[in-house]
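Section 5: illustrative case.
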């Protein structure tokens, strides 16, 4: 499988504080990849390293087979849309497009004009006067008109209202299908990832907890619900992801490739949000270890 981003033992330190440490990840080409994890997991740092905006302290990273930001040609192959949609407030929409044309050797002026027109962006309006949704769409237009092979997006809809988020994600889906580019999108909003992503990476404490195609992950993870007594006799050989208890019952999330048949347990499917939360829940680590000892 061709990779668009590979990192091995990657780390970034600011003074004595590590923002990312010992991160190893392999992101395949041809997907819209959702990168999710708790605050402080290292998502933004990883994406900035991939975009060539930061230099690693330790480890190695390659993007599209080269070192991020190493040459103008390498920079031209990667688009980056940051969370705060960095635009120049005093510049008009048209001036942003002209600036994009000057800075990007692969610039597609026809695409930029057409997309701006479809979005109803007035060329004479200054970016500082646009709504949050319009600024996000302008930033996406600039990223797409660069004609990148990889588009990196760091929380691009975090500050938008639900309608603006829906419109942005709809336009993103159309663009990725039309231009056949790879996308890595980070977000805290798993419901948004469900709409656009077909590949998922969960990053916790700089480490990849799970990665894979969304359909495959949902098909191989299950929620088991049973009594506390049933948990004491937990018989399965599947990988346990999370464990929780109430006064009456136990809930176990497992990863397995085979059917589960046991009358003591009710088996149900997970949503993508359930799956993400199971991998992000640090409180179950000791309980998983205890279960492994029992077995």
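Designed sequence:
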């Amino acid at each position: 499988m061709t990779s668009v981003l590979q990192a091995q033992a990657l780390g970034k330190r600011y003074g004595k504080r590590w923002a990312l440490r010992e991160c190893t990840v392999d992101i395949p080409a041809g997907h819209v990849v959702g990168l999710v994890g708790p605050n402080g997991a290292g998502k933004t740092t990883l994406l900035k390293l991939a975009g060539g905006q930061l230099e690693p302290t330790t480890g190695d990273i390659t993007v599209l087979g080269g070192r991020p930001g190493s040459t103008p040609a390498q920079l031209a192959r990667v688009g980056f849309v940051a969370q705060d949609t960095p635009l120049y407030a005093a510049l008009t929409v048209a001036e942003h497009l002209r600036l994009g044309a000057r800075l990007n050797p692969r610039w597609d002026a026809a695409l930029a004009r057409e997309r701006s027109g479809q979005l109803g962006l007035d060329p004479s309006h200054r970016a500082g006067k646009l709504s949050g949704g319009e600024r996000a769409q302008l930033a996406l237009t600039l990223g797409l008109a660069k004609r990148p092979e990889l588009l990196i997006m760091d929380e691009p809809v975090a500050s938008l209202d639900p309608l603006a988020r829906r419109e942005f994600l709809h336009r993103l889906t159309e663009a990725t299908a039309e231009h056949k580019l790879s996308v890595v999108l980070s977000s805290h909003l798993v419901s948004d990832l469900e709409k656009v992503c077909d590949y998922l990476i969960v990053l916790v404490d700089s480490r990849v907890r799970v990665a894979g195609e969304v359909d495959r992950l949902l098909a191989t993870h299950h929620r088991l619900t049973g009594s506390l007594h049933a948990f004491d006799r937990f018989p399965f050989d599947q990988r346990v992801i999370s464990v929780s208890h109430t006064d009456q019952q136990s809930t176990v999330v497992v990863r397995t490739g085979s059917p589960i048949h046991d009358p003591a347990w009710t088996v149900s499917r997970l949503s993508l949000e359930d799956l993400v939360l199971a991998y992000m829940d640090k409180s179950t680590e000791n309980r998983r270890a205890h279960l492994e000892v029992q077995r």
